[in-house]
Structures are given as structure tokens and as C-alpha cells.
Fold this sequence. Notes:
Elements: H1 2-21, H2 27-39, H3 52-62, H4 67-108
Amino acid sequence: MHDEQEQLTMSKRIEAFYRQSGGPGSPTIRRLLDRHLLYGKDHGLPGKKEEFEDVIRDVFLQDHSTRPLVIGLFKLKATLKQEWDAYLDAVRGRGAACEKEGDMAGKRA
């Protein structure tokens, strides 16, 4: 019963929001939602838009049983990014070296 009543209340709030802002297709809605996400009391630090990743990170880092796992995943992510960037730099460097060799071969002929 409580969930039904809460859902009904939320539905009424959403309908009122759309009526006040000009309807579902109104560009005002995007501006209002962005402002709410930046400054709403229920959305983290004022002036910083809280992303889904921020919420998940905070929840799992505050739980002592999942904190080591999350920290390990962050370290793994950083290491993979470094390795990937090093690989891309190597491939780009090899491509530049091949172009120079091609230029030199053209000059010899």
C-alpha cells in the first residue's frame, strides 16, 4: 500500500513538473534537470554533477567488505590504460618510422 501511494505521489509530482515546464518536449526541462543535478540537495556536492559512476564508487568504497575489490579494480583499470596508451604510442611510432623509410626509399630511386 505504501509503495502504491508513494508511486502515485511521484506520478503526480512528475505530471505537475511537466505542466509547469511546458510539456515533455520543452527545452526548459533539460535546463531544469541539469540545474537540479548540479544543485539539488539529494545529488552530492553543490555545483558538481553527480554521475552514475560516482554513486557506485561511493557506495562500494564505503562498504568495508567491497572496498579492497573496488580499489583493486581501479588499479587494474589504470594499469590497463597505461598499457593501452603505450601500445598505441608504439604503433604510431612504428607507422611514422615506416613513412620515413618509404620517403628515403623514394629519394634513393
